[in-house]
Please model this.
Amino acid sequence: MFDLPVSRRLALVLAATAALSGTLISCGKAPSDDKLVVYSARNEQLIKPLFDRYTAETGTPIEFVTDSAGPLLQRLQAEGSNTPADVLLTVDAGNLWQAADSGLLQPINSAVLKQAIPSHLRDPENRWFGLSVRARTLVYSSERIQPGELLGYADLAHPKWQGRLCLRTSKKVYNQSLVAMLIAQYGEKSTEQIVKGWVKNLATAPFSNDTKAMEAIIAGQCDVTIVNTYYFGRLQAKQPDVPLSLFWADQRGEGVHVNVSGGGVTAASKKAAAATKLLEWLASAEAQQRFAGDNLEFPANPAVEPVAAVKAWGSYKPNLINVADAGKLQADAVKLMDRAGYK
Ligand code: FE
Model:
């Protein structure tokens, strides 16, 4: 298969993985030798405008497949060294960590990326770099809670929140990363007490997504929840007078739990230099505001301002634990949440 031209190999691999979803979409016409192939868990609407611009600027055509993180990782694994993918873009440090841990990414030696992306938002072994930051923090009823009553994640285990807390399911990787960070911070024993306290305080069974948890507050079912800020931003955009507010957790402690969406160069890529260039461009001032802003996230590059709607939430102190630790401790977090009865 290695003797075949790239396009033919690509066709064969795609046929072999036809059972897996995801259609390859092209940006720019491909005299295909300098083309890059991207597997992306960020959706087409968010990445295609950027890829189009990159192609226009550099002449490098980009083909991409979008799917959720799990299937994309499985696909990379199944394709092994025959994968047509040069770049993986995915959400959550847990998924990036898993991709690196499974040997699917190669180390990138890029002074540009190291300079652009703070060290807590990238792999210590340089196999992936965060490209946008999502803060997972508290959202509360501005009708029933004064911000002075809130502190942060651990405080939501206090009996004063009994029957007032809503949470998204523990099955979601975002909560697994959050609890992994709490383990890194407080250790297993204390974190288990915190999670047990959350479960005791739940007003109702956990929700399938962050938006439903916020809607439950609006409906008066509970008063406070934990969400990724871009979901709050989407709700706010639809309903500017929504009776909810953001609260930056743990500002007197370790800071807000942040996670990333990010990318790396696949272990199998024969175009590491070109793939690295694309990542460097995505981390640049030119691409960052759009990469993050179109999804109401924070740029990972601190030299770039967030878009206005995001900036309006004010600044916060982030937890500086390396996001890779969230990946490393994720399996422990899953077991802990199970023991604590968090569904
Ligand atoms: Fe999300």
In short: The two ends are 45 Å apart (CA to CA). The mean pLDDT is 92.
